[in-house]
Amino acid sequence: MAPHGDKSHAAEEAAVSQAENSPISTILIVIAMQTEALPVVNKFQLTEDPHSAFPSGVPWVRYHGIYKDLHINVVWPGKDLSLGVDSVGTISASLVTYASVQALKPDLIINAGTAGGFKAKGAGIGDVFLASDVAFHDRRIPIPVFDLYGVGLRQACSTPKLLKELNLKVGKLSTGDSLDMCPHDEASITANDATIKDMEGAAVAYVADIFKVPTIFVKAVTDIVDGEKPTAEEFLQNLAAVTAALEQSVTQAKIITWFSGTSLKQLTTMWF
């Protein structure tokens, strides 16, 4: 008779295998800003949930609906209750991702949004990237092992089929809570070998990793960080147009067709 521990391990492996081979049913799309979220909401004719599963009093917003056989959920952190601006940044992103995973039990998370890009790494305005890796650039803890925890490097879910068919760019994503870039952040971003930078991705990845939910990161470039224009000015100037490019990449019927009836194992292999 096998030891109890062996049975438990075998049961766990069987559960993981079943999850990988089961069709994707529920998708969670985490988006930081209302401007970024609404084109996706309108494309799939999603409706706002009036009876949210989130705790009472939080500003988080969920839109949901069904496309083919997929349950699509778009969640954004809502407006700051005091100032009325979008609740951007890592804290809001991690909280809303945690609550959404607990309430909705998604098979796959998509973190979609805008990002700054580095011209020196081949990024241009309007380019759409699939992130291969995500890490923080503003959590500097110069103590052995804690330094690695601060960077928090995590790999995104590998989707070679998606990448090949859509011909998107690939780059490493670096996350921090500031729109601009101080010298310390620049050094960390360089160490992360990042092509794009945002304010949410690594926080979403941290929560997704805890619950072992596969996650992909789709980021459209609004501003060139190492360019000549001020970041804030260029971001606001290009936000609407680049959000349209983002919406097209996220909502293309071909992508949704792939997800429909596709298992996670099939999604992460080249051919299926």
From TrEMBL:
Q: Name one GO molecular function term.
A: methylthioadenosine nucleosidase activity
Start and end of every Nucleoside phosphorylase domain? 26-251
Listed GO biological process terms: L-methionine salvage from methylthioadenosine; nucleoside metabolic process
Its domain of life? Eukaryota
Cited InterPro entries: MTAN (IPR044580), Nucleoside_phosphorylase_d (IPR000845), Nucleoside_phosphorylase_sf (IPR035994)
Q: What is this protein called?
A: Nucleoside phosphorylase domain-containing protein
Q: What is the lineage of its organism?
A: Eukaryota, Viridiplantae, Streptophyta, Embryophyta, Tracheophyta
